[in-house]
Amino acid sequence: MRYTLTIVLMLLCATAGAQEPYQATVDIFKKSPEVQKFFQSAYGYAVFPTIGKGAIGVGGAHGKGRVYQNNRHVGNTSMTQLSIGLQIGGQAFSEIIFFASKADLRRFQTGKFEFGAQASAVAITASASAQVGTTGMAAGASGTSDQAGIQRAKYNNGIAIFTHAKGGLMYEAAVSGQKFNYKPL
Fold first, then answer.
1. Using CB atoms within 10 A as the burial measure, which of 72, 84, 157, 176 is most buried?
2. Do residues 124 and 39 touch, judged by C-beta distance below 8 A?
3. How far apart are CA 50 and CA 22, in angstroms?
4. What is the arithmetic mean of pLDDT over 165-184?
5. Contacts of 7 (CB under 8 A, 6+ apart)
6. What is the dihedral sign for C-alpha 24, 30, 132, 79?
7. Secondary structure element (H or E) that encloses residue 111, with its range
8. Which domain holds residue 120?
């Protein structure tokens, strides 16, 4: 457990020095052709530059983010995830959540927003992990960016979720859920 937490903390510290992590994270996601259409059509989005995750049997993840409407920062958010199951390791990733309409963004802004086990996120880079979701990470490989989830990138119940792996290694077969808090500016 100590080594897992050390890895996650090192990954978090490595990204903490960036002057504007939110814009840098948005720029990374905008490089993906699959994600670009969501920037053009979404009513708003929440961006998390770094979410740190670690587990040995029981796991957790946490990250802080910002919420944007019409490319204007309208509030701050945090994400907390708890999981239980067969899992070990640590990782860091970025996450962006797009909201299709004003009602979808308002639902998130209630401060009681959660993703259940059925929500999943499309990974935008080629790596050892092809899909990240609140049910855990599915193993796979992709030869080029975005090929892992290109057919699944669409709104589901008014939201679309994308992740970008930053580092670490995590094996898991676990059940988890993400809970979000929101504070307006």
1. 176
2. no
3. 9
4. 86
5. 54, 89, 90, 168
6. positive
7. none
8. 2-184
